Amino acid sequence: MMAAAFTGACAPVLGQALAPWRLAVSRSLRATSSSFVAARPPPMAALVASRRGAMAAPAGRSAGARRVWSMAVVADAEPVAPRRLKGVHKPVAVTGPLLEFAGVPISTRPELIRAISAYVKKANLQLAEDKRYFKVDPKLRKILGVDACAFLSISKYLTPHLKKPEDVSPALAKQASEMVDAANAAADKFEAETPYDDDEVTGKKSYKRKAKKNSNKALGPARAKEEGTGIFRPLKLSKTLSKVCGAETLSRPEAVKAMWRYIKLNKLQSPGDGRVIICDSLLKELFGCDKTDAFAMNKLLTPHLSKM
C-alpha cells in the first residue's frame, strides 16, 4: 500500500523530469529515420513509409500514450539497411496494362508484386477456403490473364509486361541507372555510419564486412593434406584392402582413389550404369556382396581402415 502510494505521488514528478529527455530522443530518432528515408530512391521511400504505417499506434489511446508507444517502437526497432538494386531488385521498365495499374514507368519486380498483393487484400479478393489464392477482377485480368491466381505465381504473369529499361527508351535507361546509383550510395553511407559490428544485443551480423582473422583458414584442406591431418591422416589397411590398393597404409581419399583404379583397370563397372560396381572374387571378399554402388563403397571401406 505504501509502495503504491509513493509511486502514485512520484509519478508526476518523474514524468516532468523525463519530459525533456523524451522530447530530445524523439527528435533525434525522427531526424535519423528521415535521413535514412531521404537517402533511398523514391520507390524505396514509399515502401519504408508503408511499413512505418503498419507500426501506427493503436486507436483509442490518448495523444501522449500514442507518442510514448511510437517512441518505444522506433527505439526498439533495428536500423533498416538500404537495399542495393541488383539481381531481382534491378529496376525494370513497366509496360502495357501493368503500367496503367502501377502508374509508374519504372519499378522493381518485388515492388510490383507487393503492389498487386496489397490491391488483392484491400479489394478482399482472397479465397475464403485458401488465402494463398485469390480471385482476379477485371482490372487484374488484363495483367495476369487468368480467372484465379496464387500469390506465388504473380511474378510469372508479370514477366511479359516487364522489359529492360534500355530496350524501351534512353530516358528510362538513364532513370534506372540513377536509381541504382542512389540506392548503392545510400547503402554505402549506411554501412559506413552503422555504429556496431556483430551486436550481442540484436544477434545480427555486421553490415560491414570484417577482414578474415585467419587467412590460413581458406588453405585448410591443402594444409591438412600437406601435414597429413584430418581426413588425410594415414590409416592402416586390412589385409584384403591392402591386396586391392597395393599398400598397407593410406589416407581414406587415397584408398578410395586406389579402389577406383582397381575397378576401372578390371572393368568392374556395370555397362548400363557406371555407378554400379560388379564385384569380382577379391571385392566379394572385401565387401561381402555381389555388387555395390559408388555411394555405398565409402561405407563398406570403413571396417577395413583403422587408426595407426
TrEMBL record:
Coiled coil: none annotated. SUPFAM superfamilies: SWIB/MDM2 domain. The lineage of its organism: Eukaryota, Rhodophyta, Bangiophyceae, Bangiales, Bangiaceae. InterPro entries: SWIB_domain, SWIB_MDM2_dom_sf, SWIB_MDM2_domain. It comes from Porphyra umbilicalis. Residues 87-164, 230-307 form the DM2 domain. Residues 205-215 have a biased composition (Basic residues). This is DM2 domain-containing protein. Residues 194-222 are annotated as: Disordered. CDD domains: SWIB-MDM2_like.
